[in-house]
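Appendix B. Chain record.
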Amino acid sequence: MLTLILASCKKRTEKRMEFPKAEFNLKTDLIDFKKKMSELDTINVWFDHSVCTYKGAERIEITKKSNLIKIRTAYKDETFDNNTEWKLVYEKEIAQTDTIWKIEEFFKRNINRQKSENKDYGTLQISHNKDKIHYFTDGLVDLNNFMKDYFETMKTLHPENIDTIYGVAIVYE
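Structure tokens predicted for this chain:
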């Protein structure tokens, strides 16, 4: 005996889950990121500390949680350290309204460094999703001036200067 079952077909209305999208635009919002980024955003910063025979790099991850900006920094020394793995240097949380760490002013002050015709990668690279901004230097004197500006800006966030990440430690005898 063969039984035939007919089912009525009804159109199902499916609701797709929509996830919130980040509205942060790296190129236009970088100089005001503390206010404009959301909890969906992560800004990655990479700074090449290499000069002459010294080779080192820093990477920073910046995220937001509520009204706090979270900064996580790692450093890799490839000159004097036999273990060239990334080492956590510090993790900090600052208020979104913080006025001490003036990194946004640093980005704005150096906006003219974003163009280069003869280099692929800048001394400073900032990325968000698939967008990237590179800051370039031209020659050793310019590199040292750029690094000095960067170090002075970063020391306001991390005055402890562990492992001399932001400049050479002065030893008094």
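Further analysis of this model is presented in Appendix C.
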